Structures are given as structure tokens and as C-alpha cells.
């Protein structure tokens, strides 16, 4: 990865600022301005495509990626307007037509930029709502996990209790068997003594 998403953001801000300045620059524009912007915007598009291909390498979420894509689309639209503006014929200053044309164009461009800003604001609000919903889902998931853990602990405790009771019952059963055995032995011993006494008496 030769660049980071922060690098892309910084490049975008720089190119966007340049395009905005050129839109307010009187004609003719500097001869290298349009080619430089073309190369810069193409590089932004190429890098954003790379990010879209492997977003996991750039630690970027789908909503953020969608926002960057809208931003770049808007910038490309502004640049197309700039190219259209720069291709207009320059009218001599005597009639004042050039100033009127430029002012009208700048006003139209400003309106478009404001509309694009509104779109970005709306997109940002949507991303914030998605983030809040994701946070709520995460909180609910954590609660469910905690409940399952508590339930598992309760089941384990109950199982251990049942095992202890089973051992206790087994011990009582064994003790009961031994007690019966002692009774039988005592009975047989008594019978033996009785027989011996009877034998000696004869």
C-alpha cells in the first residue's frame, strides 16, 4: 500500500481548493492549470478505485467510502464546469460583456457548489444515523451475550448441584446397604449363640 486514506484526503483537499480558486479566476486561466488538475483528479480516482477494491487494507467503512466517492464525483463535476468556463471566448472589456458572463457563470457555479455541499451534509447525517444504529445493535448484542453468559453460569451451577446431590444420594445408599449387612450379621450371630446354648444344654 503506497498511500493511506489520510494521504488521499489531503490530496483531495488540495485539488478541491485549486479548482475552487480557478473557478473564481478571471480568464484566461494559466496554461498549465487544467492539465495539472486533470492529472491530479485522475490520480484521486485511481487511488479511490484501489481503496474500493481492497477496503480492508485501508481501515475504511463502507459509509465513509461512499462519502469519498460522492465528494470525488462532485469535484469531477466542478472540474468539468471549469473546463467549460475556460473554453468560453474572452470578450473585450469595452462592452462589459465578459464581466457579466463571468459573473453569471460564477453565480451558477456557486449555486451548484452549495447544492453539492447540501448533499454532502445530508450524506454525513445519514452516516451519523447509521453509526448510531450500529452502536445500538452492538449494545444489544453485548447485552444478549451477557444474558447468555449468565444463563450458562446458572446452568453450570445447577449441573454441579445435581452432581453433588447424586453423590450424596449414592453415599446414603451405600451407608444403608452397610447398615442392613450389619443387621444380618447381628441376627446370624444371635442365632449362632442360641444354637450353641441349646447344644450345651443337652
TrEMBL record:
Domain T-SNARE coiled-coil homology: from-to ranges: 110-172
InterPro entries per UniProt: T_SNARE_dom
Regions crossing the membrane: 181-200
Location relative to the cell: Membrane
CDD domains linked to this entry: SNARE_Qc
Predominant place of localization: membrane
GO cellular component: cytoplasm; endomembrane system; membrane
Domain of life: Eukaryota
Keyword vocabulary terms for this entry: Membrane, Transmembrane, Transmembrane helix, Transport
Membrane topology: Single-pass membrane protein
Protein name, per record: t-SNARE coiled-coil homology domain-containing protein
Amino acid at each position: 500500500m503506497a498511500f493511506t486514506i489520510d494521504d488521499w484526503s489531503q490530496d483531495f483537499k488540495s485539488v478541491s481548493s485549486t479548482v475552487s480558486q480557478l473557478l473564481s479566476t478571471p480568464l484566461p486561466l494559466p496554461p498549465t492549470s487544467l492539465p495539472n488538475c486533470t492529472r491530479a483528479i485522475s490520480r484521486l480516482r485511481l487511488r479511490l478505485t484501489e481503496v474500493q477494491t481492497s477496503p480492508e487494507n485501508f481501515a475504511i467503512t463502507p459509509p465513509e467510502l461512499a462519502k469519498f466517492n460522492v465528494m470525488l464525483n462532485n469535484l469531477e463535476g466542478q472540474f468539468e464546469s471549469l473546463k467549460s468556463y475556460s473554453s468560453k471566448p474572452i470578450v473585450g472589456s469595452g462592452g462589459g460583456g465578459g464581466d457579466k458572463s463571468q459573473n453569471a457563470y460564477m453565480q451558477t457555479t456557486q449555486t451548484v457548489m452549495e447544492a453539492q455541499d447540501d448533499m454532502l451534509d445530508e450524506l454525513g447525517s445519514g452516516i451519523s444515523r447509521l453509526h448510531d444504529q450500529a452502536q445500538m445493535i452492538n449494545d444489544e448484542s453485548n447485552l444478549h451475550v451477557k444474558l447468555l453468559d449468565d444463563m450458562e453460569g446458572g446452568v453450570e451451577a445447577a449441573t454441579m448441584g445435581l452432581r453433588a446431590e447424586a453423590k450424596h444420594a449414592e453415599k446414603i445408599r451405600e451407608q444403608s446397604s452397610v447398615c442392613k449387612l450389619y443387621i444380618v450379621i447381628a441376627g446370624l450371630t444371635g442365632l449362632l449363640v442360641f444354637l450353641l446354648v441349646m447344644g450345651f444344654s443337652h
